Amino acid sequence: MGGVGVSDGERLRRWRMVLGGGEGEGTGCTLSGADAGMDAALGALYGGDAGRKRAGERSAGLGGSAPHVARWLGDIRTYFPTSVVQVMQRDAIQRLGLSALLLEPEMLEAVEPDVHLVGTLLSLNKAMPETTRETARAVVRKVVEQLEKRLASRTRATLTGALDRSARIARPRHADIDWDRTIRANLKNYLPEYRTVVPERLVGYGRAARAVKKEVVLCIDQSGSMAASVVYASVFGAVLASMRSIATRLVVFDTAVVDLTDQLDDPVDVLFGTQLGGGTDINRALAYCQSKITRPADTVVVLISDLYEGGIRDEMLKRVAAMKAAGVEFVVLLALSDEGAPAYDRDHAAALAALGAPAFACTPDLFPEVMAAALEKRPLPVP
């Protein structure tokens, strides 16, 4: 907190900001101006016994007043960068039980939208009044557009390359020769005196075709803990669906199974078609996905779940084994988010790994590489 050239007064000011005031902080420093504003905003959320409050109780700092909370949301956007604002909003929803206030349009207009806020809104979807629904859709659309801008181009480029590489041809045009694979295939023809390889066999990339080359099934657990994964998976589903050479199916499940494939042209519609929360029946979801597979050798199934199975465990594992035996590439993601692996069923993860389907958490930035490896039937880049 100190450092070379920092005065005693500045050092006390910094400690006062860290300690948050109160009887025991001991700095004797009085804050003013922006410092006082930041301190008040932090104190309303983290000060006193605010952190011990839960939904349905009055909080020490923000209370249940929508105008009060709206002012607080404006304050934190004034004093802190966007990344910090999003964390504070998330903490306010979790620690102080402010979810109900998000059902008011003026509150939604005051928040800083992010993936976690979208997850919260989706969990409130069924309770959302019509006066709030359009505002909520606007918030969700803003986040979806930001994610598409960040992820779409790289995903299309990576998967297009993978699809082209998976369609090797033996008599390629010069521009289509895969020189790396061609050299490796002809190393036995190396002529030391000329320091060159005589290419008896050329290996080339297949040219992209209009016909569907691969089929992808995204099977997404919509239990409450998977909210961020549902958001990212819906965006990726829309990106994949926009590629002519990939036929994409998107299925969400809890104890019921819902096929949202016909809504993939608009990921916002997909998200509002989900229902976060409830139980989990992975076996039932996989049974549905299995029934839709017509070209096993050209199909990739991506199960996104924390693997807490409420259905029939042995049947679930038999379905995975049967799909893999038929030639399906099966990918298990414990999460598709930036937060890392959530709590998950380790026994089920180990059982799937034994079947050749390792389960791991995947960031959105890694997902295109995972899909490219699956499409090319090569080892997955497990973190």
Summarize the structure.
The chain has 14 helices and eight strands. It has helices at about 10-20, 35-45, 65-80, 80-95, 105-110, 115-125, 130-165, 180-185, 225-240, 265-270, 280-290, 315-325, 345-355, 365-375; strands at about 190, 195, 215-220, 245-255, 255-260, 300-305, 330-335, 360.
Task: Write up what this structure looks like.
- The chain is α/β, with parallel strands linked by helices.
- It contains 14 helices and eight strands.
- It has a six-stranded mixed beta sheet. The protein has a two-stranded antiparallel sheet with strand order 1-2.
- β7 (329-336), α13 and β8 form a beta-alpha-beta unit.
- α11 packs parallel to α12 (313-325).
- It is globular, with a radius of gyration of 26 Å.
- The model is unreliable at 50-60 (pLDDT under 50).
The general outline is globular
Instruction: Record the strand order, biggest sheet.
Output: 5-4-3-6-7-8
Q: What is the residue-mean pLDDT, rounded to a whole number?
A: 83
Derived from helix and strand composition plus strand pairing, the structural class reads alpha/beta
Q: Identify low-pLDDT runs.
A: 50-60
Sheet with most strands? 6 strands, mixed
| Rg result | 26 Å
Note the run of SSEs as H and E: HHHHHHHHEEEHEEHHEHEHEH
Key structural traits:
383 residues, alpha/beta, 6-stranded mixed sheet, two-stranded antiparallel ribbon, 14 helices, 46% helix
